Amino acid sequence: MNDDELMAAVRDAFEILDPVPADVLAAARASIAWRTPAAALAEPAHDRGGHAAGVRGGPARTLTFVCPGSTVEIEVAREGRYREITGRLMPSAAALVQVRHRDLPPGGISARAEPAGLFCLPRVPAGLVSLVFRLDDGASIVTSWVRL
Amino acid sequence: MAHRDGTDELVVRARGGDGDAWARLVERHSGLLWSIARSHGLNDADAGDVVQTTWLRLVERIDGLREPAAMACWLATTARHESLRLVRRRGRDLPRVPAPREPEPGPDRVVAARERLGRVGAALEALPRRCRTLLRLFALAPSHAELAAALGIPVGSVAPTRARCLDALRRLVP
C-alpha cells in the first residue's frame, strides 16, 4: 500500500468505527436557517463565573457581547434545565428581544426591552442560545451563539 | 487545497441562498470537525455540540466572510477552540460528566466491522492513542493547512509528524 491507499483505509476504518451521527449532520444542515444577514453580530467579550453546574445559589454567570456601537450584558441564573436571563442593552434603547434556540419555534420566547434597555427572559431552556434585538428604529443586533 | 475541492465556491453559493451548496459543505467538512472534537477526548454529546457550534459560528459570519477560500482552515480552528473550551468547562464543572468513551457498537456490528476494517483497522487499534488520533485527522484534512489548524501546530511540522505516524502504522500492517 502506498501512503494514499493507507490514508484511504484509515478514513474508511474510522467511517465504520465512529461515523458522524445522523442527528449531528441534520442539525448542521439546518443551521443555515439561522442566518441573519441584516443584523449586526455582537461577539462575546467576557464570560465570567457560574460554572458550578448543579450547585444552587452559586455565583451567576455574566456575559458581555459587543458590536460596533452597542453592548449587550446578560446575567444567567440556573434553575434546573432552565436559565433565567436578565440583561441590558447599551446604549439604552427599546427593543423586542427574541430567544433563538434549536428547541424553540421562531419567536417562541421574547420580551420587551424597556427604554432603559433592561430585559428579562425567565425560562430559557439550557443549550445553545442566541439573542436577537429588534430595535424600534429598525436596526437589529444578534448575539453570537453561546451554551447556557 | 481549498481551491481544489471548490469549497470557496460552495461558500459563495450558500451565502447566495443555495441550500444544496450548504448541505455539501456540511457533508464535506463535518467528518473532520467531529474528529477534531474526538481528538480532545470528547464524548458523543460534547462532540456533537462542538460540530453544531462550529457550523453556527460559520452561519453567523458567512455574510461578512472576506476570504471564503480560507474557510476550511477557519472551521478546523474554530472546532479546536470550541473543543478546548468544552474541555476547560468540563474540568471546572461539578458533577463531572462521564469519562469520554470510545464508540461502543453492538457485538454484531463489531464482528461485521472487524471483517470490513481488515488489516489497517486492526493495525490502528494496536497504535498508541495519540498516533491513532493524528492519523485520523491526517486522513480527513484536505491539506496540511487544515491539519495545522486542527492541531494548533505550525504548518511546517505537519509533514514530519505525518511521516512518523504513517511509519508506525506501516510497521503494523502486514
From TrEMBL, chain A:
Give the protein name, as stated in the record.
Uncharacterized protein
| The species this protein was found in | Actinomadura darangshiensis
TrEMBL record, chain B:
- Tell me if DNA-binding is a UniProt keyword of this record: yes
Pfam short name (any one): Sigma70_r2
Leader sequence segment: none
Q: Respond yes or no to whether keyword Magnesium is given for this record.
A: no
An example Gene Ontology molecular-function term: sigma factor activity
Q: Which SUPFAM superfamilies match?
A: Sigma2 domain of RNA polymerase sigma factors, Sigma3 and sigma4 domains of RNA polymerase sigma factors
Q: What InterPro entries does the record point to?
A: RNA_pol_sigma-70-like (IPR039425), RNA_pol_sigma-70_dom (IPR014284), RNA_pol_sigma70_r2 (IPR007627), RNA_pol_sigma_r2 (IPR013325), RNA_pol_sigma_r3/r4-like (IPR013324), WH-like_DNA-bd_sf (IPR036388)
Q: Which residues form the RNA polymerase sigma-70 region domain?
A: 25-92
GO BP, one annotated term: DNA-templated transcription initiation
Q: Which UniProt keywords apply?
A: DNA-binding, Sigma factor, Transcription, Transcription regulation
Q: What family is it from?
A: Belongs to the sigma-70 factor family. ECF subfamily.
The name of this protein is: Sigma-70 family RNA polymerase sigma factor
- Source organism per entry reads Actinomadura darangshiensis
Q: What is the lineage of its organism?
A: Bacteria, Bacillati, Actinomycetota, Actinomycetes, Streptosporangiales
